[in-house]
Amino acid sequence: MSSLSTATSAASSATASRSQQLLERNKQWIPGGMASVNRATSPAIAFAKASGAYMWDVDGKKYIDYHAGFAPYILGHSDPDVNAAVVAAMEQGLSNYGSGPTEQEGTLAELFLKCVPTMERVQFYNSGSEATAQSIRVARAFTGRDHVILMQGGYNGNQNVVAINLMDSVEALGGKPVVGGEYPKCPMTAGIPQAELDLLHPVEYNDLEAVEAMVKKYAIAALVMEPVLQNVGVIPPAPGYLEGLRQLADQYGFVLVFDEVKTGFRASLGGYQEVAGVTPDLSTFGKAMANGYPIAALAGKAELLELAVDPDPNRRVLVAGTYNAHPIPVTASLACLKKLSDPSLQLYAQLDQQTETLVSGMRDIFSRQGVEAQVVRQGSAHVAYFGSQAPTNWWELITSHDFAFDAKYRQALIERGIYHFPKPTKQGSVSAAHTSTDIANTLDVIDQVVQSLVEHGE
Ligand SMILES: Cc1ncc(COP(=O)(O)O)c(C=O)c1O
User: Fold this and answer.
1) Distance between CA atoms of residues 245 and 260, nearest Å
2) Atom 5 in ligand 1: residue holding the nearest Cα
3) Are 103 and 54 within one domain?
4) Alpha carbon of 427 to ligand 1 centroid (Å)
5) Same domain for 104 and 216?
6) Do residue 239 and residue 281 come from a single domain?
7) Separation of alpha carbons 109 and 106, rounded Å
8) Do 222 and 176 fall into the same domain?
9) What are the required cofactors (predicted)?
10) Do the Cβ atoms of 347 and 266 come closer than 8 Å?
11) How far from 374 is each of 67, 357, 430, CA to CA, in Å?
């Protein structure tokens, strides 16, 4: 490096934000500078601390947080009851013994199934991606079939069996799919063998005909879907859609999997399946089940999950993991679910009320300022779509939502201390730690931001 370029980079690092400096420092050792490249934002903001509804960046700036770490923090960050339980577990000398059963995993399984009574058995994993990939393995073992239907615009984790077709452009999709059609396969990662891609079939959400067409064409083992599309905001199922899927699964003998990694314990204690009154064969959970500690669950019908111990080795499904049901996240999950299910706390009613106040305030602001927007809420999850209609599927979303306005809106909120993930359509999540004052302050900032965007002709 020349002395001139050394001097230039020294000067720029002196003026770069501490977040940017930290990113550059980490990049020396970690590709992209962070452990999940999905967390990358521009400009980079590195956070140093979080408590309740708030986060602080490395420069000490405080934010009211609605990102919630991609949704887990339903009780708020660093919940004191969850923390106390974890500290007590460590002091008791709980360990991941790696041999035999533990009392805690059984107690968590019992409580989990009490919260989600539609499910009969449960297994614990470390991430939503693991649980969802395992659901497909179980479905294939059970049905003896290989093909899988997924939703365009859905996300079900980072594994080969699901990592396709989340945020594709009109060009990538090559135009509107014909009724009952299959979208082209757009892998989210290099490195998925073609043979695996050939088994995956992305269809439009809210389109029963498309599912039936795939079932008639391929030997479908499973349909895996978020019951509400929540990785592209909040797109709820049309009336009768989930019931229709249940009927098709029964008629054609495929396994219906609800990926409730995002909706689970956030839509309601019993998951979105409780809200919808439709019971899948399998469902996966993560995120809010331990308020941010790394644990996930695959739950479902006994005949499916008992394949883990099937006497026939040709039907037996491998369930193994050094850290499965590790005592720290198990303890965190127990504390979290106890709190969420405590009738004296009425947390879901509180979450509903706070989120409703927020979204109705947002609707008033957009309407008063003349901004065409649709604010959609499911429980404590919410999003603002900037367009003339709330999308019912991915195609409607990419052709109606003003992504550029959304990006500017989010950036302006962040600059004024309201943290939403700065990528268009990412869901906002209210936690039990958000107070009425936080919501009122948030609405004040949204009002200022929208007014300023309108004044600047955005
Ligand atoms: C619906 C859904 N399924 C699965 C996953 C994967 O979970 P994890 O990131 O814990 O592997 C996510 C993560 O965002 C998700 O939103």
Assistant:
1) 16
2) 157
3) no
4) 13
5) yes
6) yes
7) 5
8) yes
9) pyridoxal 5'-phosphate
10) no
11) 19, 15, 18
Whether 54 is in a domain gets the answer: yes
How far from the centroid of its chain's Cα atoms is residue 286's Cα? Answer: 9
255 within domain boundaries: yes
Q: Is residue 234 part of a domain?
A: yes
Do 183 and 216 lie in one domain? The reply is: yes
CA of 238 to the centre of ligand 1 (A): 23
CATH number at residue 67: 3.90.1150.10
| Structural domain boundaries, residue 356 | 17-78+345-455
The torsion angle over the Cα atoms of residues 121, 127, 131 and 133, rounded to 10 degrees, is -170
pLDDT class of 53 with cuts at 50, 70, 90: very high
The contacts of residue 170 (CB under 8 Å, 6+ apart) are: 398, 399
Contact 107, 335 (CB under 8 A): no
Residues 332 and 371 in one domain: no
Question: Is 155 among the residues known to form the active site?
Answer: yes
Share of the chain above pLDDT 90, in %: 92
Are 73 and 208 members of one domain?
Answer: no
Verify that 300 and 315 share a domain, yes or no: yes
Annotation says 79 is catalytic:
no
Nearest to 434 by CA among 34, 116, 63, 22: 63
Q: Provide residues with CB under 6 Å of ligand 1.
A: 70, 127-129, 132, 155-157, 226, 231, 259, 261-262, 286, 296
| Reported pTM | 0.95
Neighbours of 437 (CB within 10 A): 10
Rounded to the nearest angstrom, the distance between the alpha carbon of 455 and the centre of ligand 1 is 38
Distance CA 69, CA 294 (A): 12
The answer to whether 287 is a known catalytic residue is yes
Which residue's CA is the nearest one to ligand 1's atom 7? Answer: 128
Which residue among 340, 369, 404 closes a domain? 340
Give the length of the chain.
Answer: 458
Q: What is the pLDDT of residues 54-71, one digit of tens each?
A: 999 999 999 999 999 999
